[in-house]
């Protein structure tokens, strides 16, 4: 997706596009961070769980996401900037996910308009995304189930054995694309203790 299209799409959700992060930056790749909802329970800091048939779903999803994100360290109250996984592949090519820096405006709608435009989900009321704090210490993942949506917060992913083990497995897997493999290897090397 080109940057002008991305800017327009994100503005519909109340997010301001601040630019793409250089692909050589040793951040946890979205392809790995997206497994936050698969972390063992002891590695998950917080979860916001909502049933899809709740008549106040959009309001509760947006407020739940905001609470989880602010209290969990995705962004600070006065500085609502964070990273959002976006597809940066050319049209017709397989999806390639990387981080875009965004800021939250005063009027935003993550679960409704954001999901509707396709950048933050699969239609209004169907949020699905991966977000990372600027300091890399918080992942927020939204996943839509058959009858529910959950927002999962994982703190300090570089200290979570699941991410390191799963990243090593992904990097060694022949089906993992070169972009993702290189990004995982870079992150693993940068965060090794």
Please explain how this structure is put together.
The protein has 193 residues and is α+β, with helices and mostly antiparallel strands. The protein has one domain. It contains six helices and seven strands. It has a seven-stranded antiparallel sheet. The chain is globular and about 45 Å long.
Q: Unreliable runs, pLDDT <50, ≥5 residues?
A: none
For the report, how would you describe the main beta sheet? 7 strands, antiparallel
% residues in beta strands: 15-25%
Mean pLDDT: 93
Number of domains: 1
Shape type: globular
Quickly give the structural class.
alpha+beta
Write down how many β-strands occur, each being a DSSP E stretch of 2 or more residues: 7
Strand order, biggest sheet? Answer: 1-4-3-5-6-7-2
**Order of H and E elements:** HEHEHEEHEEEHH
Q: Determine the number of helices (DSSP H or I, runs of at least 4 residues).
A: 6
Assembly category: single chain
Protein name: SMI1/KNR4 family protein
Organism: Streptomyces caniferus
Task: Give a brief outline of the structure.
It comes from Streptomyces caniferus. The chain has 193 residues and is of the alpha+beta class.
Topology, pairings included?
Layout: H1 3-12, E1 15-20, H2 30-33, E2 46-51, H3 57-72, E3 81-87, E4 97-104, H4 110-116, E5 129-132, E6 138-144, E7 148-155, H5 161-172, H6 178-190
Antiparallel strand pairs: 1-4, 2-7, 3-4, 3-5, 5-6, 6-7
